[in-house]
Amino acid sequence: MENFLLSEEKLETTKDKSKPLEDDVDLFQDLQSENEEEDNFGPMYQEFFEKQTNTTRKTTKSKKSVRFEMDEEKSEDNEEDTNKPNENNNEHLSTLEMRSERINKCIAKLEEEAISDNKPWALKGEVAAKDRPQNSLLEEAVEFDVCTRPAPIITEETTVKLEDIILQRIKDKAWDDVERKIKQTNAPHEFKKQLILNQEKSKESLSQIYEKEFIKQREAADPENKNKPEEEPKEHKEIDLLIKELFRKLDALTNYHYTPKQAIPDLKIVNNLPAISMEEVAPVATTDASLLAPEEIQRKFKAPVLGKEERTSTDKKRERRKKKHLQHKKRITKESKLKEMEKNGFKPKHNKDSAQIELKRLTSSGHQIKELKSVDDKSMKSSKDFFSRLQDQARNEIDGKKRIMKQSNRNNTKKFKK
């Protein structure tokens, strides 16, 4: 006890010395947080009581302690702080700075783990079986989508429920098994006889057939009331009486000589036109020619329209061939017509073509032919020649008229003399 008291006195003296005066107090200094105050531990358990024995230490070691990741990080940070006491003593950091340092260290550690190749296989994305250890997938809790309905967890309650359902089905005789079918061992000729159908058309109507079937079904359901006559319901009787009374009144209105009006056939206008032309709406004062499309009036050329300057040598040759072909066809048709006319006895008029044909025939036979050149064939090289010729023609006409007048006067004088 004396040693303990001496140590306490020493501590008090050191505390009194360490206390600053009022003048030396810095009012703008950062206040310590609760966590920092807790870090400055007070008197320890070992100062008042004896140290723990080996047995107690073994029991504490045997117990499993629960520790979290943040606690481990804090402990590591504390270890690093203990390894560097000089730096922490020199730097006076605030609580916010300390906290930010811890967070930064935590982030740096996580980043290193993410970048490093020593990551677990579950965090490496798509991994093949060869890249992961054997049966490692069974140890992991993997999340995946399954389309099938999951099987129920087998417990005592589920087994009891299943047994109750099975017993109830046995009591109700509700079996789901497929019934066994036995093949009929009938002779083939009997089977063929059954398939023969009556192909004769029945004289009864469908309503009568359905009525008979309905009566048979009713008789099979109630065999006791088979011979009893059918009782007509009261509603049917009332309807019959009302209809008879109505008909009687209508007959009285028509003096019991009702003759219906003759049916007049309805007029139906049938147009033999296509449906499209009937549906089209056009003005009244239009013709079929105005309703025609431009392609229907004149056929569209396949090739593009080109001018004379735009044509190439191939285009010019094509046009020339086309022109020659048309001329050849026209000449052949003309010759064929002339031959037919000659066969029938008709002589063609003197045309240029016929004259040329005859001229060729005469020259081939050896006849001499003279060409007669008329005055009209003279070429007029200037306007003077043209007007001189025109003047000569006018004079000739006037002279001719004068001659006729003189001759008529002479004839008249001779008559008077006689």
Describe this entry's structure for a reader.
- The chain is an all-alpha fold and 418 residues long.
- 56% of the residues lie in helices and 0% in strands.
- It has 17 helices and no strands.
- The longest helix has 35 residues, at 383-417.
- It is flat, with a radius of gyration of 68 Å.
- 0% of the residues are buried.
- Residues 58-69 have low confidence and may be disordered.
Features:
mainly alpha; 17 helices; ribonucleoprotein; Mpp10; U3 small nucleolar ribonucleoprotein MPP10; nucleus; rRNA processing
What is the structure about, briefly put?
The protein is mainly α. It has helices spanning 2-18, 34-39, 45-48, 54-62, 69-83, 85-90, 95-115, 136-139, 156-172, 188-195, 206-221, 234-253, 275-279, 294-297, 313-344, 352-365, 383-417. Mean pLDDT is 75; it is low at 58-69.
Compile the SSE list and pairings.
Layout (H helix, E strand, L loop, with lengths): L1 H17 L15 H6 L5 H4 L5 H9 L6 H15 L1 H6 L4 H21 L20 H4 L16 H17 L15 H8 L10 H16 L12 H20 L21 H5 L14 H4 L15 H32 L7 H14 L17 H35 L1
What summary fits the major beta sheet?
none
Global morphology: flat
Strand content: under 5%
**Number of DSSP-assigned strands:** 0
SSE order, as H and E? HHHHHHHHHHHHHHHHH
Helix content: 55-70%
Number of helices: 17
Please compute the radius of gyration using only Cα atoms.
68 Å
- In angstroms, what separates the terminal alpha carbons? 212 Å
Residue-averaged pLDDT: 75
Q: What are the low-pLDDT stretches, counting only 5+ consecutive residues below 50? A: 58-69
| SSE class | mainly alpha
